[in-house]
Design goal:
Elements lengths: L2 H14 L6 E4 L18 E4 L9 H18 L3 E5 L1 H11 L5 E5 L11 H14 L5 E4 L2 H7 L6 E3 L6 H8 L13 E5 L8 H10 L4 E5 L13 E5 L3 H10 L2 E4 L8 H8 L3 E5 L4 H4 L7 E3 L2 H9 L3 H14 L2 H19 L1
Parallel strand pairs: 1-2, 3-4, 4-5, 5-6, 7-8, 7-10, 8-9, 10-11, 11-12
Helix pairs in contact: 1-13, 2-3, 9-12
Length: about 350
């Protein structure tokens, strides 16, 4: 329950709750909103798995598996959908031999990380072995789907989507514009970890001293954001984060790997200039020079931030309306679930 996956989960669950009885087994972390339960429809059952952690911990992982097994026995679900690598590993090991229809969405394969060849190799072997389990992998972008097909043919893909209604409702709220910077403003949103590449973000900021850079989020690598023109906002509420995003000029995402970032989709809908890294997920929705900019080098990032082309921003907004809403996403998931249940009935 944090970051883009949290937004994805509550939007999808809310849409599906009109057709299905939905239970969500989850863990909390530092960036989980304190009022996270208010984001879900009242008919959704939220069950906290107290031992569920992001990091690998044999003791905690075994305890969380015991909790999940007890919950599954109580609920007796038709479908179990696992989200992220950690839940995907525990869930596939725990439920593959049961009667449940099992689905898994990676939200960005960990082995796509750049650098650390040993760690990449370990993650890929784990995914390769678990892909042999009777489970359908539903990727959140076409690029992730292409990676999945290298592991298993039991694969489908449904692009991530965002709730236009929610965003429009938040944008209509009164806003305080007293603190709007007169400078060009570049922002990003996410955990300050290796995946989001704060080192390169800092180098880009140092190369553009007259531009204001804002990082919404926090993490263990915040010390890498040392440039004087970077402001770290920490974890903000949805309203406050959206206020900053709506006032900024450019969304910057120099990630080392991604699934299909919700933050990018929302920035596109807000008609922001999106400048992103050349990785799976980002390049699945950004068409370089058409609705945003894909970059490989520091020079390319700097040049893209300087570029002014309002047609790119408008095209980004229109692309979201055409392809990446929660209505489109939930209908495709419902179709996959329905077909799966029919095949087993």
């Amino acid at each position: 329950m944090g970051g883009g996956v949290f937004t994805y989960i509550y939007n999808l669950a809310n849409e599906l709750s009109y057709k299905y009885e939905v239970y969500i087994a989850y863990g909390v972390r530092n960036q989980t909103p304190t009022n996270y339960k208010k984001f879900f429809n009242q008919n959704i059952h939220l069950i906290e798995i107290t031992n569920f952690t992001r990091k690998i911990s044999p003791t905690a992982d075994i305890k969380s598996a015991v909790e999940l097994n007890k919950l599954a026995q109580y609920v007796n679900p038709d479908i179990i959908h696992l989200h992220s690598s950690k839940a995907g590993a525990i869930g596939r090991l725990l439920f593959f031999h049961k009667k449940y229809q099992l689905f898994y969405t990676p939200h960005g394969y960990s082995y796509l990380i750049q650098g650390n060849i040993l760690k990449k190799g370990i993650y890929k072997v784990i995914e390769y072995l678990l892909a042999k389990v009777k489970c359908t992998t539903i990727s959140c972008s076409i690029g992730e789907h292409q990676e999945t097909l290298k592991l298993t043919k039991n694969a489908k893909f449904v692009n991530n989507g965002i709730s236009i209604e929610e965003l429009n409702g938040l944008l209509k709220k009164p806003r305080d514009f007293k603190n709007v910077s007169s400078k060009q403003t570049v922002f990003t949103l996410g955990r300050i970890t290796k995946q989001k590449n704060p080192r390169l973000f800092n180098q880009i900021a140092e190369s553009l001293p007259d531009v204001q850079f804002v990082w919404i989020g926090d993490g263990e690598l915040r010390y890498l954001l040392s440039a004087e023109n970077i402001e770290i906002k920490g974890w903000l509420g949805r309203d406050d984060a959206l206020k900053i995003a709506s006032q900024a000029d450019t969304f910057l995402l120099p990630s080392l790997w991604e699934g299909l970032p919700i933050s990018l989709l929302e920035a596109m809908y807000l008609s922001k200039k999106c400048v992103v890294s050349n990785v799976v997920g980002n390049k699945d929705v950004i068409n370089n020079g058409k609705n945003g900019y894909i970059c490989d080098t520091l020079f390319e990032y700097v040049d893209a931030i300087h570029t002014s082309n309002n047609n790119v921003n408008i095209q980004a907004h229109n692309d979201i309306l055409d392809k990446s809403t929660t209505h489109i996403m939930s209908e495709k998931y419902a179709q996959i679930y329905s077909e799966s249940i029919k095949m087993c009935s």
